[in-house]
Design brief:
By secondary structure, this protein is mainly alpha-helical. The protein is built from 6 helices and 3 strands; from the N terminus they run αβααβαβαα.
């Protein structure tokens, strides 16, 4: 990834927290990508359970996009419902639109 940043050969990172190894590593990689000006996409594997961790992860890293599939199945719908729940608790969270492109420094703090 560092080479991709140096060579400007990419502009986005797909993060699959359940495949990268640890949550800490997933957070570190997402933070590095965002601080390098890359888009971060939180992505889940197909065949998942109704576990909603991906939605929490997407919010935690400030990912403007979460790929969980069409909300046609219960395990997918659970993730989108979690996003709505998080937004209801904190109206400053913005999951739609292009606002993330205007303020990339606000995506991942620390």
């Amino acid at each position: 990834m560092a080479r991709g940043v140096r060579e400007q050969s990419a502009n986005a990172l797909i993060v699959k927290p359940n495949q990268i190894g640890t949550v800490t590593l997933a957070l570190d990689v997402a933070k590095f990508a965002a601080s390098s000006g890359w888009n971060v996409v939180a992505w889940s594997r197909s065949g998942e359970t109704c576990e909603t961790f991906l939605a929490d992860f997407a919010v935690a890293v400030g990912a403007p996009e979460m790929k969980a599939g069409a909300p046609a199945q219960g395990e997918r719908l659970a993730k989108y419902n979690r996003l709505l729940s998080l937004e209801a608790h904190d109206p400053s969270l913005d999951f739609a639109g292009w606002s993330w492109r205007k303020f990339p420094e606000s995506r991942v703090s620390g």
